[in-house]
Amino acid sequence: MTNMHPLGxxxxxxxxxxxxxxxxxxxxxxxxxxxxxxxxxxxLRADRAGDLLVILYPYVADGPQPEIVVxxxxxxxFRRGHEKCVFESQVISRTNCPMxxxxxxxxxxxxxxxxxxxxxxxxxxxxxxxxxxxIPVDVxxxxxxxxxxxxxxxGVVLDLSAGGISVALPEAKGPRxxxxxxxxxxFALESGRSVQKVTGTLRHCDKTPDGRWRLGLQxxxxxxxxxxxxxxxxxxxxxxxxxxxxxxECR
Length: 251
Fold this sequence. Notes:
This protein has helices at 9-21, 226-246, and strands at 4-6, 25-30, 37-47, 52-56, 73-80, 83-100, 103-111, 117-119, 127-128, 136-143, 148-161, 164-169, 182-187, 196-207, 213-219. By secondary structure, the chain is mainly beta. The protein starts with a strand and ends in a 5-residue tail after the last helix.
C-alpha cells in the first residue's frame, strides 16, 4: 500500500456508511473569505441512493460562526483507526435535522464525494531537513479583511511532513504573528521544480538557542484537493530521501 491511495467504490460506500453510523467527528477545511478556516462537524448520514451526505453544521469552539452557502466546496477529513480519510464535496443545501427528544440541529447536505483518499500515518511524521540542505521559504500572513497577503519574511525549512512544517527566521525577523494566524508558505522542495504555495495555521513561535525564531505551522486544506495531494506526494518523496540520508552507510 502506498502512503496515499483512493478507495474503491464499494469500500468508499462501506466506510462512509460505517462512519455515519458511528457519527464520527469531522474536520472541515473551509476557504472562507480570503483565508482557510478549520471547523468541526460530525457525519450524521451517508445516503448513497440520494448521492448525498448529511453533516452537522460546521462550527468553531468560540468566535463568530461561519456562514456557509449552497454551492461552496468543503474539504472533509475523518479518522478511521490510525489512518485519515479525506475528500472534497460541495454544499447542496442547508436544513435542520431531528436529533431526538424534540431537538433539531442545523445541518448541511453535501454531495456524495467523487473519491475518498486514505492517508497513512507515516505521511504526518516530521522529517528533519539535513544540515547541508537549505530550503528557503517565504512566509506571509493572510489578511482576510483585505483579501490579500501582508508583509512577508524569508526563512528556511527545518522539518516537514504532509501535516506541516517548522520554519526558522533570522533574529531580526522577530515574531509579528500570533498563534492561530493563517499564513502562506512559498517554497520549492526540489531543485528545478516550481514554487509551491501552501496555507497553514501558526501553532507556535519560539526563540531558539541560536537566536533565531522557530515557527510551527499546520497545513490547512492540503489533503482535500487534487493539487494539494500532489503537493503531499512531493513532500513525501523529499522526506523519504531526507530520511535515507540520515541512515549511516554500513561498511
